[in-house]
TrEMBL record:
<keyword id="KW-0732">Signal</keyword>
<feature type="signal peptide">
    <location>
        <begin position="1"/>
        <end position="26"/>
    </location>
</feature>
<dbReference type="InterPro" id="IPR047111">
    <property type="entry name" value="YbaP-like"/>
</dbReference>
<dbReference type="InterPro" id="IPR002816">
    <property type="entry name" value="TraB/PrgY/GumN_fam"/>
</dbReference>
<protein>
    <submittedName>
        <fullName>TraB/GumN family protein</fullName>
    </submittedName>
</protein>
<dbReference type="Pfam" id="PF01963">
    <property type="entry name" value="TraB_PrgY_gumN"/>
</dbReference>
Length: 303
């Protein structure tokens, strides 16, 4: 298979995933939604699952009310960046190996053996895959595995509200640029990249229950469970990776969120991955520590 065609195929895997059977759910998801406010303005923080199913809609009345109250919306990437048709290809291009030596040498015998096994089981051409850095391979594997659960990025919470903002004529913005997000991944040390790939392959070994459980925890609005099973495990097992993709980005976002709070009567709905809102490193607690009033909005959580 020519390398150019293989790159296109991997890039497509970042935006189009496999369809799968989806279990039925009763009622809308319980939102991971917080309201952060000062004397005259508010920022709603909504924890997203970037890949969802049609059965995850409609959303709760709490979320609909936050959207209605907000004059503008903010995402990790602004809609024009997130929807840029060349974004997956740019990410794949940034992942092309430039380091001397081979992927096999970079990974070491144990991790290379696991990747060989995965590639053989899923009919992926290992020789072509080895042209990329480990972070990209890990990301591709994770997306493929979530796709098997019927989770689709086109149905993610971010996309839902990007489309909703466009229909309502509400202004949108991003907390970071597409190139910055790519640079976070491409700028990982080799050790961090190995961690990312090892984590993706470990989740494959644990089976589809891992992704199913995380999705179920998100639907249940179970912040504590999501912290334990997603954030706390990553912080413990892959501390360098956790700092790069979570803590450092959260810290970079804080001044931009405070700028929103400094406005008068101009509320904002911020939709970001749930990981960024959880625990002491999450933006919820970081804003609380700065003295803002913070409350969780969750009608379904009340007795």
């Amino acid at each position: 298979m020519p390398l150019k065609r293989f790159i296109s195929g991997l890039a497509a895997a970042l935006s189009l995933l496999l369809a799968g059977a989806a279990p039925a759910h009763a009622g809308p998801p319980v939102p991971l939604l917080w309201k952060v406010s000062d004397a005259d303005n508010a920022v709603y923080l909504l924890g997203s699952f970037h890949l969802l199913r049609r059965e995850d809609y409609p959303l709760s009345a709490d979320v609909d009310a936050a959207f209605a109250d907000a004059e503008g919306l903010v995402f990790e990437l602004a809609p024009e960046e997130a929807n840029a048709p060349d974004l997956p290809a740019r990410m794949a291009q940034a992942a092309m190996r430039t380091r001397a030596g081979t992927l096999e040498r970079d990974l070491g015998p144990a991790l290379w053996g696991k990747l060989q096994g995965y590639a053989a089981a899923h009919q992926l051409p290992l020789a072509q895959l080895a042209a990329f850095d480990p972070w990209f391979i890990g990301l591709t594997i994770a997306l493929m595995e979530m796709g098997k659960q019927g989770l689709d990025p086109a149905l993610g919470l971010d996309r839902h509200f990007m489309e909703g903002a466009a229909r309502a004529g509400k202004p949108t913005a991003g907390l970071e640029r597409g190139d910055e997000q790519i640079a976070v991944l491409a700028g990982m040390s080799l050790d961090e990249q190995r961690q990312m790939l090892a984590d993706a392959l470990q989740q494959v070994e644990e089976g589809q229950d891992r992704y199913r459980d995380l999705h179920a925890a998100w639907r249940a609005g179970d912040a504590e469970r999501m912290w334990r099973e997603m954030a706390a495990e990553m912080k413990r097992d892959y501390p360098a990776l956790y700092r790069r993709i979570n803590v450092q980005r959260n810290d970079a976002w804080l001044p931009k969120l405070e700028q929103r709070l400094a406005r008068q009567d101009d509320d904002t709905l911020v939709v970001v991955g749930a990981l960024h809102l959880l625990g002491e490193d999450g933006v919820v607690e970081k804003l609380r520590a700065k003295g803002y009033t913070v409350e969780r909005i969750c009608s379904a959580c009340r007795p």
